[in-house]
Please model this.
Amino acid sequence: MVSERVRERMVERVREQGVRDQRVLDAMARVPRHVFVDAAISSRAYEDTALPISHGQTISQPYIVARTIELAVAGVQDPQSMKVLEVGTGCGYAAAVLAHVVGQVYSIERLRALHDLARANLRSLRLSNLHLVLGDGLLGLPAQAPFDAILAAAAGAEMPPAWLEQLAPGGAIVAPVGVETQHLVVVRRDATGRMMRKVEEEVRFVPLRSGVQ
Ligand code: SAH
Model:
C-alpha cells in the first residue's frame, strides 16, 4: 500500500525529531491520517505539517500530536490503564492516535460541525475505547473525572482551573499555554497531590474559546 509506506516515512520523521516512545510511534503508524483531511488535500496528509480542516481549525502537525502524547504517558508503565481527556477533537486524528496508546479516551469539542465530522471520520476505525463529547472543554468533563492525563489541542493564556481539579494523583496535563507566543506546558500531580510545572518547546495552536456552537 502506497499510503502505508508514506505513513512509515512520516513516523520516521517524527522519530528523527526526537519522539522515542515506541508505543506512540507504533500508534502513529497505525492511524491513517488521510482519512481525516479533505479529499482535496489528501495528497499532503503525511507531510509533517498542520493542515486546514473546516471552520478555521487545523489538524495538528504529526510531530506535535506524537510529542504531546509522549509527554502525557512519560514514565507510565501501563498506559492501557489510563483514562484520558482530550480538549479539542477537531477532525479526530489525535484522538484516534491516543486511543491506540491509552485505555480510555474522552475527547471534547465545542463546535458541533467538527464533533460530527470527527464522528464520521472515525467510524471506519471502530475504536470502542474512544468517546466523543460535544461540550466546552474549558470546564473539563466533570462527569468522567478524574483523568490520568488531560491533553489540549488549543491554547489559552493559562490552564483552566477545572483541568487541575480533574487531574488524578500521578497524572499530567499537557497543553499549549500563551497568547503571543505559546509553549507546550506539562503540569504533573504527584502521588501526594503536589503540582510540578515544566515548560517545553514553543508551539502554535488555535486559541481555546468558550461555549458550544
Ligand atoms: N486534535 C485535533 C486538532 C484540533 S484543533 C487534531 O487531531 O488535529 C483544536 C480544536 O479545539 C478545534 O476544533 C477547536 O474548535 C477546539 N476547541 C477550542 N476551544 C475549545 C473548548 N473550549 N472546548 C472544546 N474544544 C475546543
